[in-house]
């Protein structure tokens, strides 16, 4: 019974955040099967990413900067971006800017959920520690997914001259902010841990703003207004 409770606590935050972001799509909800496919794909890339991270760590050694910006921020966000771009960017269901946020968050939260499950199974965990992980790592992955998806959504519908720049933003910015987040948590300067609460608060305010902007750019929003005028 205890194991079931711990596993539930490990899985619930990712599912809850994905459901919230899915329901924020105001105009044209994405197919559930495609969202779940990306969520499961996000889970599947965890082990290969961990193998690559471990190999690089053994090769180059470990220090807070490498662990934060190279292994966590760089490798993890690059893997998510690669999957997102090659599966979704040219998919017919990617038909409005907010879709980028839904699909990127699906991959990110799938990744975070399996990480949480592994943490619960292989390390001593309590319900409280898993809830703290929900507030930090799982929430962080959701925000990095929002950032990635927001700029990929802009790139999808931007003129060709701007699309490559926005695609670069969709990879570089989540990797950079993921690195900053990890560096705050792993830095030897212990006082920096107190920065993480306002950091996450500001990040969520930013993320909610991007959600609103992406929805406002939906072509279905204009169609809906035209139909209202006709009525």
What are the salient characteristics of this protein?
9 helices, globular
Report on the architecture of this protein:
- With 231 residues, the protein is mostly helical.
- The chain has one domain (2-230).
- Helices cover 83% and strands 0% of the residues.
- α6 (127-157) packs antiparallel against α7 (160-186) and α6 (127-157) runs parallel beside α8 (196-216).
- The longest helix has 31 residues, at 127-157.
- 36% of the residues are buried.
- Residues 224-231 have low confidence and may be disordered.
What's the structural blueprint in terms of helices and strands?
Blueprint: H1 2-23, H2 32-44, H3 46-60, H4 64-88, H5 97-122, H6 127-157, H7 160-186, H8 196-216, H9 219-230
Helix pairs in contact: 1-5, 1-6, 2-5, 3-4, 4-5, 4-7, 5-6, 6-7, 6-8
The biggest beta sheet reads:
none
Distance between the termini: 56 Å
> Which shape, going by the Cα principal axes?
globular
Any idea what the radius of gyration is? 18 Å
Derived from helix and strand composition plus strand pairing, the structural class reads mainly alpha
What is the mean predicted local confidence, pLDDT?
85
If helices are DSSP runs of H or I spanning 4 or more residues, what is the number of helices?
9
Give the low-confidence spans.
224-231
**Percentage of helical residues?**
over 70%
SS elements, strand count = 0
The helix/strand order is: HHHHHHHHH
Whole-number total of structural domains: 1
Share in β-strands: under 5%
Gist?
Helix content is 83%, strand content 0%. The chain has 231 residues and is an all-alpha fold. The radius of gyration is 18 Å and the shape is globular.
């Amino acid at each position: 019974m205890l194991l079931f409770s711990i596993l539930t606590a490990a899985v619930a935050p990712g599912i809850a955040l994905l459901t919230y972001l899915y329901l924020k799509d105001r105009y044209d909800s994405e197919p559930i099967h495609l969202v779940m496919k990306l969520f499961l794909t996000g889970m599947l890339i965890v082990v290969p990413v961990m193998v690559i991270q471990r190999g690089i760590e053994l090769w180059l050694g470990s220090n807070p900067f490498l662990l934060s910006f190279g292994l966590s921020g760089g490798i993890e966000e690059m893997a998510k971006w690669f999957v997102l771009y090659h599966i979704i960017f040219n998919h017919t269901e990617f038909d409005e800017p907010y879709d980028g946020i839904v699909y990127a968050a699906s991959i990110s939260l799938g990744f975070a959920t399996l990480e949480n499950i592994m943490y619960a199974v292989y390390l001593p965990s309590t319900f409280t520690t898993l809830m703290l992980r929900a507030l930090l790592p799982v929430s962080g992955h959701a925000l990095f997914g929002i950032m990635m998806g927001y700029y990929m959504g802009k790139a999808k519908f931007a003129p060709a001259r701007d699309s490559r720049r926005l695609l670069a933003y969709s990879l570089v910015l989540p990797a950079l902010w993921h690195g900053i987040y990890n560096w705050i948590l792993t830095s030897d300067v212990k006082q920096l841990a107190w920065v993480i609460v306002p950091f996450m608060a500001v990040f969520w305010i930013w993320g909610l703003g991007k959600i609103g902007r992406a929805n406002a750019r939906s072509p279905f929003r204009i169609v809906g207004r035209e139909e209202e005028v006709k009525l």
